[in-house]
Write a structure and sequence with these properties.
This protein has nine helices and 32 strands. By secondary structure, the protein is mostly beta strands. The N and C termini lie close together (9 Å).
Length: 634
Amino acid sequence: MRQTSFWVLAGLVGSSVLAGANQPSATQAPPRATAEPVPTPNPIQVENAKPGTRGWYITKPAMNGEIQAYAGEDSINKGEDVHLYVSSQRPYTMQLYRLGYYGGAGARLMANFAVSPAIPQGYWVFNMDAPKPQNGLPVNCPTCIISQKDEKGQETNIRDVNWKLTNTVHFPASWTSGIYLFKLTESAGNQWMVPLVLRDDGAKADLVFQDPANTDQAYNRWGGTSLYKNYLLADDGSGGHAFYESWNRPFDQKYGSGHVLVWTYTMLRFLEEQGYNVTYSTNNAVALGLTNLLNYKGFVSAGHDEYWSQAERKKLEDAIASGVSAAFFGGNDIYRQVRNYPDLQGRAARWMAGYDNPPLDSIQTKGPLGVSLATGQWRLPAINDPEDKILVSMYNAINYRNQNLIVKNTGHWVFTGTGLQEGDAIPGILGYEVDSLLNPARLTVPGERVTIIGQSPFQNADRIPKTLVSVAALREITRTNNIVFNAGTIYWPYGLNNFHLEYHEESQVPVSAALRQMTNNILQRMITGKVPAITAASVISQTWADASTQSIHLRLTTALNATTASDAVHYTITINGQAVRAESAGYNANNQTITLSLPVDTLHIGDVVAVRWDGLSDNAGVVLKPGEVRLGVR
């Protein structure tokens, strides 16, 4: 029997209707008129009720340049086309997946594509043992731009491959916003990936989740340079770095996927598992105004969102001032300023400037925030707009991996339903870059309540380690009733689910039920504007429905009165919006699990179930508030 962890949220429901696919409909039991109307499922719930596809990630990465590719856009709106630029030494096929939860499968196959012919256009492979020309320059790439001079005549060391267009793919308007992944396989079996964000610019969603693609690009060393390294100058890249980066080249990280399949994907799985009404965007889409943050109740970032343009930061600050909440479930966020430029074809935001040293920058004028557009750390005197104005704490150090987050002020609503006590540890969550409180004045801002919810001593990664203190902080803004949360650690998403690809070097971080509940509390506060209360929903720890045994199971964190828990009259069940009756209810006091047995042929894989309860009491006789949980059938 497969068990799926599911933390309860008010108003979550799914649907098994498959848009645009011919799937057999499940046989449903006769309706019972006493059921309350089930809320209309949101697009994420509908999408994740569809069958997922296992085996979606690559198994034979192209290690020697056999096939490489990139997308001509980092995001598109629904109904638009994406343009792919592929270099392959052999014919290749493509599959397109949407990333999500999908009952644990993690993705859904959206399309298969016919074989495309071989089209070698160049490649780059990093090899520390290779001579500098291989690490420093693309191979067999006659179209590649290997540098451009800036306005001061300095070499930028940009790499722009300028390949020919090979594939154009249309994304129907009916598809759900999300992060999509192309898997390319050449005829010898070598594989590459290309990520893309599908926006829904007209979405009526609660949350917008940002893929931190700027940061992926800053670390992208394809072609021999990144905003950190220049492998033409030294084999280890230590001789300098590029001043400009181009989106017109493959990601060398994670076989073309950048960092999408690291922290971003882990957070995405959690959001979609929980059924949040979320839409997706990127740094560039926000900066260009394609995504309007004012249309949403909350902005969400996760993992490592380090590189921001001034245009994007201005839009976030304006949104917060207007009452939009923001949550950064990561660390080292908004640390460096970059600028975006069109490429040589005039396509917006395809080049990114990042000198990391404001005096070297060719631009010194002021931007929309009234500070210098010179690129580098926001806190440097030349810019003087530190990110802790937004985040309270800000980047301080790289630490030794998998250190513990120590909770503080556990009487705060963030800890509702977690059972955590002052000073408890959440294992493994601190890493690999963490934030500290560097300006105590950020704790006493007029019109705000600022609370430290994590204060964790840690050893940094210096040659001679020092003990520092990481801080996770929450701003509650009185006038606009919104919040800003900063987790202060990149590894926060790792504690939300147990998905780790084989090349995740941080795969030992354990899942934390308390961290999942804290995350839900923060997100619910962003959406509802209300502090979460301790209700029946807070005592549910795990749910699953099993088609093979025609049973539903609710595991609790507190003991119930066995008489009320074992009476089926206290439960109302709907399946795909249709009411059904439980044949019996049982309660196991040893593991605090309710089991609801249903008639034969009632539950089918892919169904979405809603269970509502009323009249339950705990073993002390205290009556619990009515509650509801939604789950899929496995």
